[in-house]
């Protein structure tokens, strides 16, 4: 894949936007990296170490757990592919050991289990093949995390709908507009951004969101997004 056309959008201005959002959030900026991809791990670790944000970098579940307990990272960046152990078990234990941790997982396996990532309460799920495309999933995922929201990259969302085993059948009937707004919420858009993109009033978006919360039986927008993800409601 030729990434050259995307390099400008991934430059300092975009990186500064993400860093500013993370710095202004309540996220504890201590980062831990876990992946079987040693080259990617080392490149990311060196950048984070330079900014003094790095707690640790490792390739196995067993190595990660002591760092979780001792370093108390606020952000776990991991892959679904480890050299040893299970990434989903690791993120579930991370939730228990560090309750306020936020988690981004990159799906690198040939047949990724997006539904299991959702069940494991991963905040941002990025399909590796989406990295570098115009959707800018890494930036969007980190911005969602900074705003205590959830995010699935486009292919991860498609896989959850069409290929993940055991997804419950959706029995919640939505209008076309509700379906559109729900998809945008799942992509990390705010209600104001949705209003701007759809050319409708913020009040109208809030009314649709309220109707969605009622249909899903939840009280907040965050609960709505989490429940929709778990039910794999993506049309």
Write a structural description.
It is a single chain. The protein is an alpha/beta fold and 235 residues long. The chain folds into two domains: 4-159, Response regulator (Rossmann fold), CATH 3.40.50; 176-231, Arc Repressor Mutant, subunit A, CATH 1.10.10.10. It is built from eleven helices and six strands. Strands 2-1-3-4-5-6 form a six-stranded parallel β-sheet, sandwiched between helices. α3 (61-71) packs parallel to α4. The radius of gyration is 18 Å and the shape is globular. 36% of the residues are buried.
Query: Which sheet architecture does the biggest sheet show?
Result: 6 strands, parallel
The main sheet orders its strands as 2-1-3-4-5-6
Number of extended strands = 6
Q: What proportion of the residues form beta strands (DSSP E)?
A: 5-15%
Helices, by number, come to 11
CATH second-level architecture of the largest domain: 3-Layer(aba) Sandwich
The sequence of SSEs as H and E is HEHEHEHEHEHEHHHHH
Computed over alpha carbons, the radius of gyration is 18 Å
């Amino acid at each position: 894949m030729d990434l050259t056309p995307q390099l400008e959008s991934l430059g300092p201005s975009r990186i500064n936007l993400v860093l500013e959002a993370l710095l202004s959030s309540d996220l504890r900026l201590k980062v831990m990296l876990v992946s079987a991809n040693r080259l990617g791990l080392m490149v990311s670790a060196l950048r984070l170490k330079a900014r003094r944000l790095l707690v640790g970098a490792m390739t196995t579940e067993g190595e990660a757990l002591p760092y979780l307990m001792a370093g108390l990272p606020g952000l776990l960046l991991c892959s679904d592919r480890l050299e040893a152990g299970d990434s989903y078990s690791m993120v579930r234990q991370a939730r228990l050991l560090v309750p306020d941790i936020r988690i981004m997982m990159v799906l690198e396996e040939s047949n990724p289990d997006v539904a299991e990532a959702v069940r494991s309460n991963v905040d941002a799920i990025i399909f590796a093949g989406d990295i570098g495309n115009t959707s800018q999933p890494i930036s969007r995922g980190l911005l969602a995390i900074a705003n205590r929201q959830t995010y699935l990259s486009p292919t991860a969302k498609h896989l959850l709908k069409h290929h993940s085993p055991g997804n419950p059948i959706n029995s919640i009937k939505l209008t076309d507009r509700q379906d559109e707004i729900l998809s945008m919420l799942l992509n990390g858009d705010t209600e104001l951004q949705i209003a701007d993109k759809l050319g409708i009033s913020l009040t109208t978006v809030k009314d649709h969101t309220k109707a969605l919360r009622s249909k899903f039986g939840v009280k907040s927008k965050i609960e709505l997004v989490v429940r929709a993800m778990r039910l794999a409601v993506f049309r």
